[in-house]
Design a protein that fits this description.
With 605 residues, the chain is mainly beta. The protein is 10% helix and 29% strand. Helix 3 (90-97) links the parallel strand 1 and strand 2.
C-alpha cells in the first residue's frame, strides 16, 4: 500500500518564456565584415539575394496559408483561416493541417473544452495528427474591447482542454486522447489533458513529441498517462503532471533515442504495479532530467519518483525530490546505467524505501562508474541499509548527509558496494534502528571500499575527520567560518562540470575544495596562496585559510605537490594575460609550482 502522503503541493518551478526570444543582434564585428569585401563580391551577393526573392515571390499561395484557428464557440461552417471563421473541432483542424505543407501546420486553439472523440466515434477514434503539427493553446478573446475584438494568448487565464469523455459527460471513454501518426513530429503547447481510459498521449513507431507547459491531472488509467514505446524523442518542458494513478509509470518511455524533462513538476502520482512512480525510462540512448520537482510520488517497485534502467547516458541535474516512496527500494530515484550516469546538484528530503536506498539506488559500470555530486540528503529512510544511498560502481563526492535513517544496525546514510567510493562529503547525525555498530558504521557501511577526505561522525581511520562540521545554522548546511570541512576535499575527485556547488557558488575558488555540497566563501584578501593554518592533517586549521601568507602555506603546498595531489594543479601557464592563466590543466608540473610562488610572493593585499 502507498505510504500516507501530505497534501501540500510543491512550489512551482520557473516556467520557460511564453514565446521564442528573438535572435541576438549581429555584433559590430559581423556588421563591419562586408566592408572588407570587394565591390564585385558584394554585387554577386546582391544578385543572389534578388534571385532568391524572385523565387519566393513566385511560390504557390498554399505555402503561406498561415495558421489554422479553432474555437469551440465558433459558428458552424468555418474555414479556419481566422478567429472569425474558426473551426469548431480539433478533428477538423487536423484534417485541414494534413493538406498543408509541413512548415505550415500550426493550430491556434481558443480556451474551451475539446472532445478527443468526434460525435458518433468509437473509443479508438481519438486524435491522430499528421507530421509537423504544432498545437498552441491558451488563446482567448478579451470582452468589452473596442472593435475589432482583441484575441490574446494568456494560458494562465485562458485554459485549453482536450477531454476524453463522450459528449464531455460521464466517465472517460477514449482509450487515449491523442496518438501522433508514425514517423512524425508533433508539438503541444499550453494544453490541459483530461479523462482517458488507457492514457492521455501515446507515442509509437519513430515519433518525436514535444510537450511544453502542458498539464496532466487527475487521470486513472490502465497503462500510463504518457506512453512512449519505440518513439524517437519525448520532450517535457515546464509541464505539470499531478494527482494521477496508473498501472505502470505515469510517464513511461521504452526504446527511444532520447527523453528530456526540464522545469517540470511531478506531484502525488502513483504507479500501482510499476517502477518509477512519476517517470520510468528503459532502453533509451539519452535521458536528461533537469530543474524539476518530484514530490510525494509512489511506486510499488523501485524508484518512488523516477526509475531509469539500461540506458546509455543519464543526467539528473538541479532537481528536488521530496517525500517520495517506494514499496521496494530506491525511495526517490533508481538508476541502472549502461553508460555515463550523473546526479548533480539535487536535494533529497524525506524519501522512504521499504527495502534499501531511501533516496537513491544507483549502479554504474566498471568502465563508466556513476557519479553523485553536490547533492544534499536530509531525513531519508530505508527499512534496510543505505538510509539515503546505496551505490554500486559509483562515486559519491561533495555531498552532505544529515539525519538519514536505516532500519538496520548500520549505514544510516550510505552503503557502498563493489566499485564504489565516498569522498569530499559530510555525514553527520545519521541514525540506525538497531544498536551495536560503531558511530562510524552508523553513518556509512563501506564494505571495504575507499572512504576518504570526508567528515564522518565517529571516524578514527586517519583518512576522515570526526569533527563537528560547524554549519551556519540548524537547517542551513552551508559551512561557517572555521569549519573543518573547509579545504578538506581532494580536488582531483571532483568532476569539472559544472564548476559550482549546490548553491551556485564557484567550487574551484582556491587550491583545495571543501567537503560537503556547499563551498565556503573564499577569503580573497590573501588570494590563492593562503591555504592553511597548519601543516598537520587532522589538526585545527589544516587546509583552512587564516588570513596570512607564510611558510605554513608554502609547506602545505609543497606537500601536496610532492604527493601529486590534484590540489597542486593550479594553472596551464604562468603568462598573466593568457586565457589559461590560473586554469588547472590536469597535469602537475613545474608550471604549477612557479604559479604558486608568484601568488606566494604577492601575499596579502
Amino acid at each position: 500500500m502507498p505510504h500516507p502522503r501530505p497534501d501540500s503541493a510543491a512550489d512551482h518551478p520557473p516556467l520557460a518564456a511564453r514565446d521564442q526570444q528573438p535572435e541576438s543582434p549581429v555584433s559590430a564585428t559581423d556588421a563591419q565584415a562586408p566592408l572588407a569585401r570587394s565591390a564585385a563580391h558584394q554585387r554577386r551577393i546582391a544578385a543572389a539575394i534578388a534571385m532568391m526573392g524572385a523565387s519566393l515571390a513566385l511560390a504557390p499561395a498554399a505555402q503561406a496559408q498561415g495558421v489554422i484557428y479553432v474555437d469551440d464557440d465558433a459558428a458552424p461552417g468555418g474555414t479556419g483561416e481566422s478567429w472569425d471563421t474558426a473551426l469548431r473541432t480539433l478533428h477538423e483542424a487536423i484534417d485541414l493541417a494534413a493538406t498543408r505543407p509541413l512548415w505550415d501546420r500550426t493550430i491556434n486553439i481558443a480556451d474551451g473544452v475539446y472532445e478527443a472523440i468526434p460525435l458518433g466515434g468509437t473509443a479508438d477514434d481519438y486524435l491522430r495528427p499528421a507530421s509537423g503539427v504544432t498545437f498552441r493553446g491558451g488563446f482567448g478573446r478579451i470582452l468589452n474591447s473596442e472593435p475589432p475584438e482583441q484575441w490574446v494568448r494568456d494560458p494562465d487565464r485562458f485554459v485549453t482542454v482536450i477531454d476524453g469523455r463522450r459528449g464531455l459527460q460521464g466517465e472517460a471513454y477514449a482509450r487515449f486522447l491523442l496518438e501522433p501518426t508514425p514517423d512524425t513530429f508533433s508539438v503541444f503547447e499550453d494544453i490541459t489533458f483530461r479523462f482517458a481510459r488507457n492514457g492521455a498521449v501515446r507515442c509509437l513507431d519513430g515519433t518525436d513529441v514535444y510537450l511544453t507547459r502542458c498539464s496532466f491531472t487527475g487521470f486513472d488509467v490502465l497503462e500510463s498517462v504518457i506512453l512512449a514505446e519505440g518513439a524517437r524523442t519525448l520532450w517535457l518542458d515546464a509541464c505539470r503532471i499531478e494527482d494521477n494513478l496508473a498501472r505502470n509509470s505515469v510517464v513511461a518511455a521504452n526504446g527511444l533515442l532520447q527523453v528530456r524533462v526540464r522545469e517540470s513538476t511531478f506531484a502525488r502520482n502513483i504507479a500501482t504495479f510499476g517502477a518509477g512512480g512519476a517517470l520510468g525510462v528503459s532502453d533509451t540512448n539519452i535521458v536528461g532530467v533537469a530543474s524539476s520537482i518530484f514530490e510525494t510520488n509512489y511506486a510499488r517497485y523501485p524508484g518512488g519518483a523516477v526509475a531509469v534502467r539500461h540506458c546509455g547516458e543519464i543526467y539528473v541535474n538541479f532537481c528536488r525530490f521530496d517525500g517520495n516512496s517506494s514499496g521496494h527500494y530506491s525511495g526517490a530515484l533508481e538508476i541502472r546505467s549502461m553508460g555515463p550516469a550523473k546526479v548533480n546538484h539535487c536535494v533529497f528530503t524525506a524519501n522512504i524505501a521499504d527495502d534499501e536506498a531511501g533516496a537513491i539506488g544507483i549502479q554504474g559500470t566498471y568502465l563508466e562508474p556513476a557519479r553523485i555530486e553536490n547533492c544534499l540528503f536530509i531525513d531519508n529512510t530505508a527499512i534496510q541499509g543505505g538510509g539515503a544511498v546505496t551505490a554500486r560502481e559509483a562515486t559519491i563526492a561533495n555531498c552532505t548527509f544529515i539525519g538519514n535513517h536505516s532500519g538496520r544496525d548500520r549505514a544510516g546514510a550510505v552503503t557502498l558496494e563493489s566499485g564504489s567510493r565516498l569522498s569530499n562529503s559530510i555525514l553527520w547525525a545519521n541514525t540506525v534502528a538497531q544498536p551495536g555498530a560503531s558511530l562510524f558504521l552508523q553513518q556509512v557501511n563501506s564494505n571495504g571500499r575507499p572512504v576518504e577526505n570526508n567528515i564522518i561522525a565517529g571516524a578514527d581511520d586517519g583518512m576522515n575527520l570526526p569533527d563537528d562540521p560547524r554549519f551556519v545554522a540548524p537547517g542551513d548546511y552551508r559551512l561557517a567560518p572555521g569549519s573543518p570541512a573547509i579545504n578538506l576535499g581532494d580536488r582531483g575527485l571532483v568532476s569539472s562540470w559544472p564548476e559550482i556547488d549546490l548553491g551556485g557558488s564557484p567550487r574551484f575558488s582556491g587550491a583545495f575544495v571543501d567537503a560537503g555540497c556547499y563551498e565556503a566563501p573564499q577569503d580573497t584578501a590573501c588570494g590563492e596562496a593562503d591555504i592553511s593554518a597548519s601543516t598537520t592533517w587532522g589538526t585545527p586549521g589544516y587546509r583552512i585559510p587564516d588570513g596570512r601568507v607564510d611558510s605554513t602555506d608554502l609547506f602545505t603546498y609543497l606537500d601536496a605537490f610532492a604527493r601529486g595531489n590534484a590540489s597542486a594543479d593550479l594553472t596551464r601557464t604562468i603568462v598573466p594575460f593568457d586565457p589559461y592563466y590560473g586554469v588547472p590543466d590536469g597535469i602537475i608540473s613545474a608550471t604549477d609550482f612557479y604559479y604558486y610562488l608568484i601568488k606566494y610572493e604577492e601575499g596579502c593585499r
